[in-house]
Amino acid sequence: xxxxxxxxxxxxxxxxxxxxxxxxxxxxxxxxxxxxxxxxxxxxxxxxxxxxxxxxxxxxxxxxxxxxxxxxxxxxxxxxxxxxxxxxxxxxxxxxxxxxxxxxxxxxxxxxxxxxxxxxxxxxxxxxxxxxxxxxxxxxxxxxxxxxxxxxxxxxxxxxxxxxxxxxxxxxxxxxxxxxxxxxxxxxxxxxxxxxxxxxxxxxxxxxxxxxxxxxxxxxxxxxxxxxxxxxxxxxxxxxxxxxxxxxxxxxxxxxxxxxxxxxxxxxxxxxxxxxxxxxxxxxxxxxxxxxxxxxxxxxxxxxxxxxxxxxxxxxxxxxxxxxxxxxxxxxxxxxxxxxxxxxxxxxxxxxxxxxxxxxxxxxxxxxxxxxxxxxxxxxxxxxxxxxxxxxxxxxxxxxxxxxxxxxxxxxxxxxxxxxxxxxxxxxxxxxxxxxxxxxxxxxxxxxxxxxxxxxxxxxxxxxxxxxxxxxxxxxxxxxxxxxxxxxxxxxxxxxxxxxxxxxxxxxxxx
Length: 511
Hints:
There is one protein chain. With 511 residues, this protein is α/β, with parallel strands linked by helices. The protein has three domains: 31-97, Beta Barrel (Elongation Factor Tu (Ef-tu), domain 3), CATH 2.40.30.20; 101-374, P-loop containing nucleotide triphosphate hydrolases (Rossmann fold, 3-Layer(aba) Sandwich), CATH 3.40.50; 381-505, ATP synthase alpha/beta chain, C-terminal domain (Lysin, Up-down Bundle), CATH 1.20.150.20. Helix content is 38%, strand content 17%. The chain contains 16 helices and 16 strands. The strands form three sheets. The chain has an eight-stranded mixed β-sheet, with helices on both faces. Helix 7 packs parallel to helix 8 (332-340), helix 12 (385-399) crosses helix 13 and helix 15 (456-470) packs across helix 16 (486-505). It starts with a helix and ends in a 6-residue tail after the last helix.
């Protein structure tokens, strides 16, 4: 018969066995506390081993990034609402940098910079995490930019072409259609297989909703990802948004996919970074705003590239957007971005107010890379377009003063006005390559010179359905074709002559 003492001795022996079997290892936990709390930032002490850009966790569960390392304090950017943090709150160091979920599960979703869903959908089961910031691909890991990225906007594809792997700045005053250019480029990828990532930095919720609705209505949202840091989001989240979006885009690029990244916009991103720098009381200089704003944006945009075949052959094309004040392209932020990127698309407010949309100034816009990757057939069709258009713009100035012009000059001006009318394009209506070639052929052959100016828009609207009925083969051409076959070229010209003559004589067929 066992006694209570025997039971007690047995329990003690079993406990000792279990304790001795436990794997014991020393653990080091870095713990600090909040000294000061501000608008989106916090000053932390007690974490001497913290590294730059290390991820910190507050006792409320909020995350922060250590961006300013002082002798006895750490400046931390908070990645969320500061309402639950007070002075004296416990802070834990993680020893890790910020990471975001990446992969196919993100496509079609609206998320924030940390990967949290904003569209009401379920959270992600993060199978793969990628660091928010990583070095740009080395020169030896890159390949030449050889394939075009069609935007469906005739003035861009014909005169300011983009290549896959290029960085092209979209710049202009407020409310001149900068976002519309980027959205049309996204919509035009609906049948190309290009993954599109849209990063909204400091934008109003209504503006972001309009972009998402346009892509869902006209594009292929299942191939798109929206990373949103709205104007009312924490400054840290807004600052992190473009880097997180770039990390998500890079995952697809390194998997051999072609990706288009739109950052809307970097002017607001610079303003957010300035706000954070002021709140952290960082003295102006090389390590703080404005001295380091070049590095802030260059280390982001340099990550776009066309990878060599041995590294997957994927590409990341960046379309950053920047805002100017009264058309001042020589301001500090625009100058930085122009020097970082491979060209710019400049939108002139004067053209916008004259209802020339898209309001792209072809004189101040340039593509330093895309011309070498432009579709050969489109390049041949638009060979003289820029020169003819520039000549027209110069001659048109004289007609505004009632200057007498000869017949030759009058024809040049009338032809130029039709070029301008053809280059005008409605939003969310990108053109297929075949339609662009047909329009350029009609211009270069002078087929539209006999069409009244007020009927050119109707001609453009009718062209797509007319080609489907009478010259379907031209809509099937691809961006690798060097030139139209002689028979197809002649048949397309005859088809365009019939359509143009119908509009020259009357309102046109089916109008």
